[in-house]
Amino acid sequence: MRMIKALTAIAAMILIAACSNDQQAAAPATTTVTPGSVADFRQNVGDRVFFDTDQSTIREDGRQTLNRQAEWLKKYGNYQITVEGHCDERGTREYNLALGERRANAARQYLVAQGIPAARIKTISYGKERPDPVGSDEAAWARNRRAVTALQ
Amino acid sequence: MNTRFDMMLPRRQTILGGVALAAGAARPANAQLTIDMTKPSFEPVPIAIVDFKGDKVGADIAGVVRNDLQNSGLFRSIPPSAFIQQNMDPNAPPRFPDWRSVGAAGVVVGQATTSGGNIKVDFRLWDVVVGQQATGLSFTSQPDKWRRLAHIIADAIYKRVTGEEGYFDTRVAYVAETGPLGNRVKRIAIMDQDGFNTRYITDGKTIALTPRFSPTLQEIVYMAYGENNAPPRVYLQNVESNRRELLGNFPGMSFAPRFSPDGTKVVMSISADGNTDIYEMDLRGRALRRLTSGPAIDTSPCYSNDGTQIVFNSDRGGTQQLYVMGAGGGGERRISFGEGRYATPVWSPRGDFIAFTKISGGSFGIGVMRSDGSGERMLANGFLVEGPTWAPNGRVLAFFRQQPNSGGRAGSVTLHQIDITGRFERQMPTQTDASDPAWSPLIPQ
Amino acid sequence: MKKLPLRLLILVALALPTAATAQRADPVYVEDRLNQLQQAISLLTGQVEQLQYRTQQLQQQMEKMQADYEFRLEQVEKGGARPGGTPAARPTTPSTAAAPPAAAAGAADQVYNDAFKKLQDGDYAGAEKGFRAFVQRNPHHALAGNAQYWLGETYYARRDYQNAMTAFAEGYKVYKSSPKGPDNLLKLGVTLATLGRKSDACAIFARFAQDYPRATDLQKRRIEQERQKNGCG
Q1: ipTM, 2 dp
Q2: Would the pLDDT of B55 be above 90?
Q3: Does A109 touch chain C (CB under 8 A)?
Q4: Chains that touch C (3 or more CB pairs under 8 A)
């Protein structure tokens, strides 16, 4: 898990670097993301948590991400939230739809327990229909077993 | 190109099946023009299908018949270039020694004639071994239905030789997949069993999955996502008019629909607060009845052929396994006890077998077991094989194969058919990548 | 493998109080606890299903064996014809290959069932190979005593009384407390008597009451019949 966090951090840095490059910003890279924006949420909070195979239990690393999400969402109360549940491709289509729903619901329940109003959070399952990243190895599958907090 | 999709021929121009052509009394089954497909080994029956008389369409019909029979794995179509006897009279007995010497057990001859805006096709199957007619039929239809006539002829030959009902005059609904995997377009398509006459019945704006035919073929049920991130719902769509309606407006997701054998009910999964159970909807009054409960995922329900039971998939025992219950719920009992996870059970139209997807040891397989769970047999294996569906004779299955993705690109997804002995597998042609096949019943004549 | 769910349940049970002290007020704790209990229940559900299935299979096996046994007894009681008498006349098919490797428990059951089927079909050579392979590879299997007994029967049916005697004797010695123990003893005595060793047979029958005080009435009656037939004191 530590590795995935490290990867996320690196990805964030690359993104930030790219942004700052595009905008030719003189200021330090971290300030290019507007606090309270969707980009801020994705890069500085983390919009997704990961699950073990066939499981829908929020892992310790996921709790930390969801704790940060809850804090941020309390601060920026203008967003409506949809938690998307996803699965890797190593299951059958219909079962995975149900499993994705379970994962989305687990993340939602956690956010509600942290004080986010239940009415603010919808859930949707994409089963194995929306892989990200696309790949057929253990690393790709681990990243695909996920619940993504999308903001509207 | 005829884009309108005629699911059924208009009644008055219905195909006139069963007009037997009298020429020699029908003889009981012969040793070489018959095949017992349940035997552990057999040789495909060598058969010669002569181009039918009557312009181009006669040759086209013969081509479709050849293709159907060859694709079943039970026949070996002798190439026309090997034929000795030429310019045959479709009504006279063939020169049997000529056909024996090319190794044919049977010869099919026929003719197509057009009159009064209709096409009339008749054919005879000659048993070369005993030197007599084995069967002969005549059909009339609209000229643009010639492919269906060819499939019906292939079904008649298949039935005469195997003793089993044919499955060539059928359609297959499936999910046509295009575009990059991360943003894949998935829409419902319907084609003839041999890959012709493909027609798309959803527009691809949202993901549509798991189509299933009604017993009359006039409707399909499927699951589709709503626009703007609305959760998936089950739709009932008339395939002639394309009119579609939502089956129940539930707050959560509804999916995995399937018709009851009498077409009056649809069984499906509905999720609420992360929990998925099975419900039955009566199509006449739209009344909804819950059939399972509890915190487990209960999905992929499928009625038995007589409609009295439902086989489904549940993880109540820790992993996905197959269970059978009464059609009204209750009396649930587990039937799968092998190693691995079991999913997508489908009851054979004959009632004898249940086909399933099995995941074990990191690979996927398609298998069959008797309806009490005994006698499990695996037919096909691969990186990812899923979603078996029965041909109406219960002797052939279709499913899909997905190859591994690599370099950020999607692996190919293709439809395949296999006979229940697992001997003969072939890819079914589709215009795009394809998954979730649903084999229709025989098209009503 | 079989103990795993139970162990997990204990782990869950142990983990819960610790978590409780740390996070009693946390609503997440309640959610966790529910999840854990649900998982434990589904593991147990799966386990119960497996056990029911296993029991059902054993029951079917037992019924089949009992029917076969009673049929054989009946044959013996009718005019004293030996069980091997008639079946020996049946056409026997040559056994094809050695029994498949019995790696898993399921495979072992398969070997046993196949051998039993061969016995019923009168393929005594095939049944012999199957039962011998089963006992060799699964000496501690619940059905090992049964397999040893039926191994003896495959010889007895072919009137190979020497090998039958050895097999039944081993069954009686090694699997004394198996459900087939009394039958092994009985057939050992019967075989000895057939070989003309009546005093040895009587000595074996004499051990019956002491070794198997809880034998069925049928078994007791059979022993008594044999004792009388052989003039045991």
Answers
A1: 0.89
A2: no
A3: yes
A4: A, B
